[in-house]
Specification:
This protein is mainly alpha-helical. The chain is 72% helix and 3% strand. It has one domain. It has a two-stranded antiparallel ribbon. Helix 2 crosses helix 8 and helix 6 crosses helix 8.
């Protein structure tokens, strides 16, 4: 039983970081109905920035979030204003966003591969191999720090959405874009800011990812598949769903890895994605799609 609870603790500590990764993706979908397949590659882009900052200026990966978040926010604003407004009225808007994001992911992956090659990389501060011991239980310092930072950032996002005017506008747009526009919400401005926020969260997640996982340019496809399973389980466009789905699947994956072997861990996410789409396509907190 002690082993079981130890695995659950490790799963939960990763779940908070997964939640940070997934929240940016589901925020973008909730506001603009953009399935951002490039979200994973921009996490890796931030991870490489963190690597450069650590190797060249000895900036701690957690502190580098103060650089990667604003950088990715403004990059996101630029990308959204350049690519997406021109297709907003397209009858195939959803399909067009998928193609645009896919193309963007391929371009960024190619650029990262050109500058950094396909070698596995990681950022290794001193605490990356240290642990905190709590009686019979332990938790890696890097995972604990990453989880605490993730919870802090998600808490700040929650406060932004619930206690600021732009937050009210974002939530209104997520609930009903047309109705929000009718009552005077500037949905174009809200969409731009929300896309930037989603990218900023990807930047923070990338900085944490650089310590906890090895990475190389093409690995973003594995990450986007994992993140899609998280937000589909929770419900597309649901921030609470993204958080809940991340915790549930992180614990499930940790248990599968412990009892069946690490080879089976990725299958946990893909099997969950398949089962949710088969049994409850709207997810735990998502809205049912209206027919007709």
């Amino acid at each position: 039983m002690t082993q079981f609870f130890q695995v659950v603790i490790l799963g939960l500590s990763l779940g908070g970081i997964y939640a940070l990764m997934a929240t940016g993706l589901t925020l973008i979908f909730g506001v603009m109905r953009i399935i951002n397949l490039a979200h994973g590659v921009f996490m890796l882009f931030a991870a490489y920035i963190t690597l450069l900052l650590f190797n060249n200026f000895q900036i701690d990966p957690i502190l580098s979030i103060l650089i990667t978040m604003p950088l990715m926010f403004f990059l996101g604003v630029g990308i959204y204003k350049t690519l997406f407004p021109r297709i907003i009225d397209s009858p195939r808007y959803m399909e067009m966003t998928i193609l645009l994001a896919f193309g963007l992911a391929m371009i960024v992956e190619g650029g990262l591969g050109f500058f950094f090659t396909g070698i596995y990389r990681s950022v290794n501060p001193s605490y990356a191999i240290e642990i905190f011991q709590f009686g019979t239980f332990y938790i890696p310092k890097a995972q604990l720090f990453g989880t605490l930072v993730s919870i802090l950032l998600l808490g700040l996002l929650w406060a932004l959405l619930n206690y600021t005017r732009i937050g009210y506008a974002v939530r209104a747009t997520m609930q009903n874009r047309a109705a929000a526009q009718i009552v005077g919400v500037n949905v174009e401005r809200v969409s731009t800011i929300a896309f930037g926020l989603g990218m900023a969260l990807a930047g923070a997640a990338g900085s944490l990812l650089s310590v906890l996982f090895t990475f190389f340019p093409a690995k973003h496809w594995q990450w986007i598949a994992i993140l899609m399973s998280l937000i589909v389980l929770g419900g597309l466009g649901s921030l609470m769903g993204a958080f809940t789905g991340a915790l549930l699947l992180a614990v499930a994956a940790a248990l599968v890895s412990h009892y069946l072997g690490p080879t089976w861990q990725p299958i946990t996410f893909f099997l969950a994605l398949f089962l949710v789409l088969l049994i409850k396509p709207e997810g735990l907190f998502g809205k049912k799609m209206e027919e007709g």
